[in-house]
Amino acid sequence: MARHLYVYYRVPVEHASQMHQRAQALLKSISRECGIVARLQRRPEEKDGRQTWMEVYEAVPAGFEETLERAAEREGMTGLIDGQRHTEIFVDVT
Questions:
Q1: Are the CB atoms for 26 and 77 separated by under 8 Å?
Q2: pLDDT for the residue 45
């Protein structure tokens, strides 16, 4: 059964450009190192000077979350967000 990982977090507007560069570097690194298909999204609206961003990873293996968090720290993403990175796992129903 395929597992899909969704990671969302809030980014202050003033960090958006820098976060975009770091998040793109993260997705490229994960794709190259792990062969995982990844996407970066954000909500179209801002709220209280924050944007909500989401990383989407398709068909991830067990234990991928730890690899991802180490990579996010390596890219320096954690210092650019407001709060924590929240992780959700979904599986295909069909």
A1: yes
A2: 96
